[in-house]
Amino acid sequence: MIIKNGLAWTLLPYIESNWLESDEKSLFTLGCAQAKLHATTPPPTLGTDFSMGFSLFEKLFQYAEENGEWSDFLIMLKNEYDGLKMIGFNELPSGVIHGDLFSDNVLGCPEKIDAILDFEEVCIGPFAFDLVMTFVGFGWQDGEPISNRWEAILSGYESVRTLESIERESLRKLHTFATLSIAAWRYWQFVINIPGTKHTYRYVEMVDRLDKTLPF
Question: I want to staple 113 with a disulfide (CB 3.0 to 4.6 A). Which of 72, 101, 105, 108 is the partner?
Fold first, then answer.
């Protein structure tokens, strides 16, 4: 950081690269990088709250109660809330997770990842949750899950770290939690905070995924 003309500036490196594509080789490479991220030692100040998760859900419920605005989405989210809280996060292998590996947060090519961006959601959490969130970000096309993309992400990941059986058993519930987290964030941003834009109904994209057959 530097101070210039009385203002604080953060200088970031410029990286010559492109957004990572969703081809199988690129996703294999991404899976490898994510497993290596999970192997890093957490800094002592890193918290455990995933800001798009339960704390956001509870904020939405409070808003709905105070304003009398229990939409169909918020009622559905409240109905899912108790079941998701019973997943047993504390029993799953955990460490540093990114929490938001979507295509606009990764620069690279099939051979290598040049940069992972936007660590706003980084926290200590279940590795398997982070993995399915990457599938939420990269694994869908035209409203459908693409099994080859999941297999590529998982193969790359397990070339570095093998999932434990308890993680495999929790993947579907974790995927529901990840999908609803993105839906909740979009609802909070574009329905409540910044209404009336072209993004108002972006949360519906995530809601529509909940009844799809998953490749795990």
Answer: 108
